[in-house]
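Design a sequence for this backbone.
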């Protein structure tokens, strides 16, 4: 708390000289005593990378996840939660900014040395919480700009997006989750660090907590793990816990178990310090898994806008204020998180930009969620279909009539496709009755289709007006645009076109 806020009117210079120091002393002394117990909750966001909505034990999955299962059992477990995108960078933008990622021009994964990034003008959750006196920390995968700074691009670093402290990687832990060589702490490269990425992040949280945390300030810690994104390396003793599945799956499940152990260590630090009750903990994955069988019965995988690509687990815990031991079926998504957190701490969001979610606070406190006015919309240019929109129980998907294979690394030919995107083929699903999206209702429910199409057109047009047109993109067909894996992109593009 600042000591400069006291509004004292003093008649003369001498009065100021005598009284002001005393007033400042008393005021600051009082403020510090009050601040010993922060009334604002701490906020901890834990994010898995590429983990499916069905991988955790508490969601029926095969991975051993006792810490997250306990968090869900005692807290709030959401059964119908969505990311803001089927892919890393845009999903993170939707979580941190409360906006559909297309509005900020994050159309896809951000490739290395690429112009696309989260612009400095975006207001992140960290920046919002700083206005309420929060210490703000990022520990983990960043994937929103070059990290560390690349002078050729000069893109905003974590400290320019509201984070006081940062340990992270630009994208994945390299060369794998084991002994990563690309961790950057507050702009300084650490070189090779021995250990598994998830445990290194838990170590960093504990280090920050011990050395940097100020007990008179609430904290916001954003902790996006690297697991179970490929390339996976898991501890052999955890792989041994899955003798009945193929080695690749065993490695994958062990990677999630390793993440769960790291989560357990972070939560234990809160408990040991008496902070577990006054901390809002959110756990999710950034989007669906690339692994068949990991996305419950939902259709599709990572990079699809069918539900398999965009459904995520969501667990919320805040024992001091949110009644626990609940499972909720309400449909929620990442852009709801910023309005929720802002409302919780009494921060106002600016009126100069569009927000795409709504506060979940009434629901979390035990009441009902207001009716959602704006549908949820996903746009991913290199999927097919490219668009999905959920409104009520229905999902509309939209596909262009352009069979040009799209590139992983947002190229100079992808940009005009995004700018001028036109949907020609629509599908309609009732995802409450048909969660696997097997039964297309487009022909048998023309009225519903028409209503959903007009909602889609209005919302998509508004989003397009906001969107960013990047310059200096890699040439279509170049290795940089394709990220050296053209076969994978062709396969992704063709997956649904021939059905
Ligand atoms: Ca991811």
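Sequence:
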């Amino acid at each position: 708390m600042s000591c400069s806020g006291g509004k004292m009117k003093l008649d003369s210079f001498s009065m100021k000289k005598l009284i002001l120091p005393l007033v400042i002393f008393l005021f600051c002394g009082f403020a510090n005593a009050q601040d010993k117990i922060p009334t604002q909750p701490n906020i901890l966001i834990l994010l898995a990378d590429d983990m499916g909505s069905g991988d955790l034990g508490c969601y029926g999955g095969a991975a051993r996840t006792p810490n997250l299962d306990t968090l869900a059992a005692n807290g709030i477990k959401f059964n119908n939660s969505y990311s803001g995108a089927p892919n890393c960078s845009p999903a993170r933008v939707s979580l941190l900014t409360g906006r559909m990622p297309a509005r900020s021009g994050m159309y896809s994964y951000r490739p290395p040395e690429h112009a696309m990034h989260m612009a400095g003008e975006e207001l992140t959750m960290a920046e919002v919480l700083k206005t309420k006196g929060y210490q703000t920390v990022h520990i983990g995968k960043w994937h929103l700009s070059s990290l560390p700074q690349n002078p050729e691009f000069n893109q905003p670093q974590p400290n320019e997006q509201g984070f006081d402290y940062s340990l992270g990687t630009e994208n994945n832990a390299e060369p794998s989750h084991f002994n990563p060589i690309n961790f950057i702490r507050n702009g300084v490269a650490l070189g090779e660090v021995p250990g598994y990425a998830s445990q290194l992040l838990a170590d960093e949280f504990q280090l920050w907590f011990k050395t940097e945390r100020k007990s008179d300030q609430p904290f916001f810690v954003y902790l996006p793990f690297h697991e179970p994104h490929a390339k996976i390396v898991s501890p052999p003793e955890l792989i041994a816990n899955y003798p009945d599945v193929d080695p690749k799956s065993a490695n994958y499940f062990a990677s999630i178990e390793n993440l769960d152990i790291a989560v357990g260590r972070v939560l234990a630090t809160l408990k040991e310090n008496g902070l577990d009750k006054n901390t809002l903990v959110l756990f999710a994955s950034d989007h669906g898994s690339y692994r068949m069988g990991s996305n419950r019965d939902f259709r599709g995988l990572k990079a699809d806008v069918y539900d398999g690509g965009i459904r995520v687990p969501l667990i919320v815990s805040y024992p001091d204020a949110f009644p626990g031991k609940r499972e909720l079926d309400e449909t929620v998504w990442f852009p709801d998180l910023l309005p929720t957190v802002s409302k919780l701490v009494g921060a106002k969001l600016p009126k100069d930009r569009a927000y795409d979610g709504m506060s979940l606070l009434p629901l979390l406190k035990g009441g009902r969620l207001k009716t959602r006015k704006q549908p949820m919309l996903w746009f991913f240019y290199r999927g097919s279909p490219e668009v999905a929109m959920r409104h009520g129980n229905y999902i509309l998907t939209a596909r262009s009539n352009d069979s040009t294979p799209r590139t992983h690394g947002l190229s100079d030919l992808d940009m005009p496709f995004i700018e001028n995107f036109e949907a020609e083929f629509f599908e309609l699903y009732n995802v409450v009755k048909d969660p696997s999206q097997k039964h297309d209702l487009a022909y048998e429910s023309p009225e519903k289709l028409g209503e959903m199409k007009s909602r889609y057109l209005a919302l998509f047009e508004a989003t397009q007006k906001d969107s960013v047109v990047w310059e200096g993109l890699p040439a279509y067909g170049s290795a940089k645009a394709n990220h050296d894996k053209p076969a994978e992109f062709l396969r992704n593009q063709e997956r649904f076109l021939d059905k």
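The longest strand covers residues 326-333.
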